[in-house]
Amino acid sequence: MHARSILRRIAGCTLILASALAGAANADDVAGPKARVSVQISGNSRDGRPGVVKGAGAALLEVGQTAVIGVYGDVEGSGLLGVSGWPPANATSHAWRVELRLQAVSFEAVELSVTWKREDPRSRAGGPGAGDTRVIKLSAGERYVLDLVQSDSPGSNLVNLVVQLEASRADDSPDRTMLEYDFWLVHEDRTGKKTTEHRSYGGFAGTKMSVDFAPLVFGLDGALVRGGSGAPFAVLVKAQLTSRIRPDGRIEVTLYTDKQLECGGGFSSGSGEKEFVAQDGETVGVELPAFLGWSVLPEFRTVPPGARPGVTSTPKGLRVSEREFFEGDRFSLVVRVRRFTR
Questions:
Q1: Which of 144, 170, 196 is the last residue of a domain?
Q2: Sign of CA dihedral 159, 328, 80, 333
Q3: Are residues 25 and 98 in the same domain?
């Protein structure tokens, strides 16, 4: 990923994550049962689409170890933020410090002691906030809401910020089961026409699989452009997947997705994470997050006939509301994991 794409321009909101681990210098080298724990922050948009922007900080812990994960987000639309440790280096509207201690771990559940605090980093005193210490028991795939903050800014695209926890047991030894991985990127336009791209890989259970799809290139009329020459929009989708075989024979999958829009030299991006348990060979579909930003196309001055809604003329070029432009389009990723058979 290019360094400039780390800054994510989202209209009305930017959510950034930072994490720091405490404990062993290299947690992967620690013997004994371990758990992978994550703190997630997401935003629910005013148009009813859940979790349109999301970040997650993760730690791999042995029983008795601790981790501190910081996440922060802006629901007031004050501009771009950066990535830092704790406390956050840049002023944002809300920040959470979450300290996790692994109490117990089994195949069925993970038990954590959690001490968390919400702060306003713009105030030297931290500002009024909330927080407590609690013990939480999570089964694989279960999500626990730690805190929720409503937006009081009518100009924000988000109505709230949600901070959640997830945890699952991490395997201690490599699984030599060979698996086949299939990925389908599906674009469906507002008329129902579908375009599909397929990728297929093989690898051992427990290894990380990465896939990059060819860019989907669009004209100002919203139609896909073959070859992409001179087209103003390019949608790039990437995914990473890890899996393990459960004792009952089903396959536990963690899927990370990133959808990026390149437009007029700028970038908008939305990422997501999904954990699910599937039968051997079962297909699972994930709808990718919507774009909420805007872009300016300096090389275009007038709105051409047939342009989609959301394209307006400005002295600096055409301004494109990405949410309005792609209204009715769906981008989804379909995944299948199965045991390799000769």
A1: 170
A2: positive
A3: yes
Q: Amino acid letter at 155? A: G
Are 338 and 180 in contact, with CB atoms under 8 Å apart?
yes
How many beta carbons lie within 10 A of that of residue 52, not counting itself?
A: 22
Number of domains in the chain: 2
Are residue 195 and residue 112 in the same domain, yes or no? no
* Claim to verify: residue 159 and residue 17 sit in the same structural domain: yes
- Domain shared by 199 and 145, yes or no: no
| pLDDT confidence bin for 24, thresholds 50/70/90 | very low
- Nearest of 32, 72, 8 to residue 291 by alpha carbon: 8
Q: Are residues 99 and 158 both part of a single domain?
A: yes
CA gyration radius, the chain: 21
Six token digits for residue 15:
């959510």
* pLDDT digit string, tens, across residues 255-303: 888 888 887 666 677 778 888 899 999 999 999 888 777 788 888 888 8
pTM: 0.53
Asked if residues 301 and 318 have their Cβ atoms less than 8 Å apart, the reply is yes
Same domain, 30 and 146: yes
> For residues 327 and 309, is the Cβ–Cβ distance under 8 A?
yes
DSSP single-letter state for residue 34 = E
104 and 243 share one domain: no
Residue 163 near residue 184, CB atoms below 8 Å: no
Query: Who contacts 39 (Cβ-Cβ below 8 Å, separation ≥6)?
Result: 19, 56, 57, 58, 69, 71, 96, 98, 100, 146, 163, 164, 165
Task: Quote the domain boundaries for residue 198.
Answer: 178-339
* pLDDT tens-digit map of 68-125: 888 877 766 543 333 355 666 665 678 888 999 999 987 678 999 999 998 876 665 5
Domain boundary among 152, 170, 188: 170
Classify the phi-psi angles of 326: left when phi > 0, otherwise alpha if psi is within -120 to 50, otherwise beta.
alpha
Separation CA 281–CA 68 (nearest Å): 37
Per-residue pLDDT, 46: 66
Distance (Å, rounded) from C-alpha 161 to C-alpha 170?
A: 28
DSSP state of 280: T
Judge if 99 and 239 occupy the same domain: no
